[in-house]
Amino acid sequence: MPAWLHLMGQSLWPLLYAGLVFTVPLTLASFAFGIVLAFFAALARLFGPRWLVAIVRFYIWLFRGSPLLVQLFVIFYGLPNVGIVLDPLTAAIIGFSLNVGAYNAEVIRGVIESIPRGQWEAAYSMNMTRAQALRRVILPQATRVALPALSNSFISLVKDTSLAAVLTVPEIFQAAQRIAAVTYEPLILYSEAALIYLVFSSVLSHAQGRLEARFGRHALFSAGR
């Protein structure tokens, strides 16, 4: 067996373990918090008072306009200067969540605005409040429209979690760095880490396609009724 293949076999489990224990939970937690933040930020931009709209617009401008790596450094290495000390995993979740929230707030706002005004008027004609119309009529339609963009954001986040290595979070890339520091084989280890990210992304892309097809069939069925 070639030496490089033997090394990849030996390092496979440590990298997979780092992915399952740190990368996957980090991705899921960050995306969940980010989507919740994005949803309320989008609603604030659409229906909030001017002062709240201004705050949300500033938040979106700040986190969309600055590099994610810089944001992570500010949160983990900068905040201790003002007395806020966070452990690496918490800092990474906060950083990724804020970034996901900023990008997806615009996605959610856009799809809500894309729903024809007649849908709102139809809901109001049935004596629904704005909140009821949003929950019962608008959001189900907006979800189908937003699904591809949100799915792409989730897949992108899986790869972006490699940046958590700079915060010493022992995810896949950090594990590869540690093994490479001992074996002096960075090309093999980093290539293996890239392949693992590729497998994760491919599985998620397949799941995205099936989810979109399912939502599409549901939309056709609802239209047929």
Automatic annotation (TrEMBL):
Instruction: Give an example GO cellular component term for this record.
Output: ATP-binding cassette (ABC) transporter complex
Task: Give all residue intervals belonging to the ABC transmembrane type-1 domain.
Answer: 20-208
Cell location: Cell inner membrane; Cell membrane
Per the record's keyword annotation, is Transport included, yes or no?
A: yes
Q: Which UniProt keywords apply?
A: Amino-acid transport, Cell membrane, Membrane, Transmembrane, Transmembrane helix, Transport
Do you know which CDD domains this protein is assigned to? TM_PBP2
Q: Which InterPro entries match?
A: AA_ABC_transptr_permease_3TM, ArtM/GltK/GlnP/TcyL/YhdX-like, MetI-like, MetI-like_sf
Q: Which Gene3D superfamilies match?
A: MetI-like
**One Gene Ontology molecular-function label:** transmembrane transporter activity
Question: Which one Pfam family would you cite for this protein?
Answer: BPD_transp_1
GO biological process terms, semicolon-separated: amino acid transport
For membrane topology, the record states: Multi-pass membrane protein
Keyword Disulfide bond set for record: no
Q: Where are the transmembrane segments?
A: 20-46, 58-79
PANTHER family per UniProt: L-CYSTINE TRANSPORT SYSTEM PERMEASE PROTEIN TCYL (PTHR30614:SF0), MEMBRANE COMPONENT OF AMINO ACID ABC TRANSPORTER (PTHR30614)
Q: Which family does it belong to?
A: Belongs to the binding-protein-dependent transport system permease family. HisMQ subfamily.
Tell me what this protein is called.
Cystine transport system permease protein
Q: Which organism is it from?
A: Paraburkholderia bannensis
